[in-house]
Amino acid sequence: MKLMRDDHSRLPFFVYGTLRPGEINHSWLLRGRTTSETPAVLHGALLFDGPGYPYAVADERGRVHGDVIHPAEDLYQEVLSDLDRLEEYSPGAPGNLYERVVRDVRTYSGQTLPAWVYLAAADHERDLREKGRPIAGGDWKHR
Fold first, then answer.
1. Average pLDDT rounded to a whole number, residues 60-72
2. Could you give the CA distance from residue 138 to residue 141 in angstroms, rounded to a whole number?
3. What angle do CA 22, 10, 116 make, to 5 degrees?
4. How many whole angstroms separate alpha carbon 139 and alpha carbon 143?
5. Which residues contact 23 (CB under 8 A, 6 or more apart)?
6. H or E element, residue 106
7. What keywords sit in the KW lines (predicted)?
8. What domains lie within the chain, and their CATH numbers?
């Protein structure tokens, strides 16, 4: 089944911090539950070092390095729920740490595709812009 541009039901995820391969949350949340993990870049975002984990915020000046992960089809809903819980995201809820949004990402091989990305929620974004520490180069693994 070909994914239509406006069909967000089964998009891959772009992960840029503790969910990347080799990082702590990948080990217990994603290992063995994906069909592929591909290095990619999110353009139009800056990466900030948060308390213990990173936050990406929309900003045309930057880019964030990460990985596109494709959950196994039979585990998609379970992975989606687990990721939302980890990121403390609930659709439309006040107080979310992150918002899950669709953004185009570009793989290192040049393919552009839509993916779910967790960006800092508005309150956290304001704090990060005022007091946060951007991660030079936008790569959590090389902070």
1. 97
2. 9
3. 55
4. 6
5. 17, 140, 141
6. strand 98-107
7. Transferase
8. 13-136 (3.10.490.10)
pLDDT digits (tens, 9 = 90+) for 7-30: 457 999 999 999 999 999 999 899
pLDDT grade for 52, boundaries at 50, 70 and 90: confident
What residues have CB less than 8 Å from 24, skipping those under 6 apart?
Answer: 18
Confidence of residue 53 (pLDDT cuts 50, 70, 90): confident
Which tokens sit at 96? 């979310």
Return d(Cα 98, Cα 87) in angstroms, integer.
6
Give the Cβ contact number of residue 13 at 10 Å. 23
The whole-angstrom separation of Cα 133 and Cα 74 is 39
Over 60: is that where the pLDDT of 2 sits? no
